[in-house]
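Exam revision sheet. Question 4 asks you to relate a sequence to its structure. Input first:
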Amino acid sequence: MPTASERVASKQGEAQPEKEENQNSKSSVRRNSGRVTGCKNSSEEEVPGDVLEVLSGQNPVAVDAFIRHCNLNPDSYITVQPRGTENCLLDSPINALRGPVKLKTFVELTMDVASASPRRYFFEARILNAFPQVETLASSRSSLNNIATLNLMVLEDFPSVQIPFEWLVQLVPPLKTRAFSLSSSPSAHPNQVHLTVNVVSWTTPFKRKRTGLCSMWLAGLDPQESKGVHIPVWFHKGSLPPPPSSLPLILIGPGTGCAPFCAFVEERAVQSASGSTAAVLFFFGCRNEDNDFLYRNFWLSHAQSGGVLSEEKGGSFIVAFSRDQPQKVYVQHKMREESQRVWSLLSAGAAVNVAGSSTKMPSDVQSCLEEIISKESGVPKESTVRWLRALEKAGKYYVEAWS
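Answer key, structure tokens:
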């Protein structure tokens, strides 16, 4: 992604109902709205489809415990000389750490002390220091191969480990930004950004509680704090370019994949207030209507008579509730039911935008589109693959997926 402007955002949030993914994992989705202030380093304004990179803070208790277990002096000063730009952003606080800086500040801004996915040799280095005997090392390494634990937890489990700070800088995973699709249109919400954040917590096989670093940190901020909450953020161009108002749209966004399409619909609504706009057909999916129907009122209001998603304007809002009946129903099932409508928009030059999980969903949606094109146009299945490739080359087929 190109380098983008750095801004400081203050967070305001409201929670959606919590949903349970499985026995050991729970997540809730929150829409966080932030007022954007500060200086802009580029003349380019953000648009629907853009991405916001957020550098989260860390739990101060975890940072203090990490420093204590490593026998470091938090008030000592160190000199930072980065060797490269890997895992760094050009205008980030990380690169601003030139010259002497407090050790605690460096740890807070650059070292993910509670990472859920530490590097393999991070374990091995600690074991080598704690257990120099070959036989002990072999047995310990074998027992640790299947453990997914926090770096801080490793230090707590092996208190005899002592590693030089120069090694820690290389061994501890860097604190990385997290990317979120904009859930709002700047035209509808000037000087604000809205994000859809999945707040995740889970329990490991060893009965330890884990949480998502950035999402849990955002959820824990207090928007009523008198001094405000300042968050380092960067705007980037996303995978979904903003469509012109005259372009018909077929949107497929199950779960939090609906986030960028909130921005698309808001933008199209602003455009429709001053002129004609093309049809928008949106397929949304979630597990249960009562538990995780994200932005229910928002979508339904725009699907009413005269709205952006209304049938009166040639579009529609169609939902698949996968767990509300014995047989699972996903967005591709609803697409097949609406195959004539989908083909009609495709024939009229519509663009297809897909957003959501990068597991099976994007490929399932593509297969479904191939079936629809073949069925409605009468062309062989092999020809539909070329048809979709041509659509992609024409800039009318985009996928934004994440793991």
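Marking note for examiners. The chain has a mean pLDDT of 80.
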